[in-house]
Design brief:
By secondary structure, the chain is mainly alpha-helical. The protein has one domain. It has 8 helices and no strands. The two termini are about 45 Å apart.
Length: about 180
């Protein structure tokens, strides 16, 4: 009974995780996760990733690992850099009094309606640069992630095959 339960659980996990996918398919799943993790859909990454992983029948763990590659300590710098890149590509100019407006906005209470109106007013000219810049950045990072994940999965599978074929090493006999 226990063996049957273990076998059923193992088959269920294999089907859920797609552990027998080709290296290319696993790398694509990871790259999709990286793309979504660095995309402009901030806050919706996980939901979109899980939905796409199920719809496309991809390795869910690989997709989620890719999504969570966007770590909290790099997220601010990444979106700042990609928004600046998007602004440069779209030739978006920032208001000259932006720093003063930001300082004034930060003096307001986060609970006040005025604060949120000011946030929207300051963010509106940056919406397209943010979107374009982070889509370009996400595409570049996904391409890099695909190459790296593919190399990793292939080398890992080669190692597993080699280890499985190697005869068990016996410790040397004591004299």
């Amino acid at each position: 009974m226990i063996e049957a339960t273990r076998a059923l659980t193992r088959r269920w996990l294999d089907a859920l995780l797609h552990v027998h996918d080709t290296p290319e398919r696993t790398a694509r799943a990871y790259a999709l996760g990286v793309f979504l993790g660095f995309s402009p859909f901030l806050g919706l990454h996980t939901i979109i990733a899980i939905a796409l992983a199920f719809m496309l029948r991809l390795n869910r763990v690989a997709v989620l690992l890719g999504v969570y590659s966007n770590l909290p300590w790099i997220i601010g710098a990444y979106y700042l850099a990609t928004t600046m890149m998007g602004a440069a590509l779209l030739r978006t100019t920032l208001p000259p009094d932006l720093s003063e407006r930001l300082r004034d906005m930060l003096q307001l209470s986060v609970r006040s309606r005025e604060f949120w109106h000011e946030v929207m007013r300051l963010a509106r000219p940056l919406l397209w640069p943010y979107t374009v810049g982070s889509l370009i950045g996400a595409t570049i990072l996904a391409a890099i992630a695909y190459r790296m994940a593919l190399a990793f999965v292939i080398s890992r599978r080669r190692y597993q095959v080699t280890a499985a074929k190697a005869p068990d090493r016996q410790p040397p006999a004591s004299a």
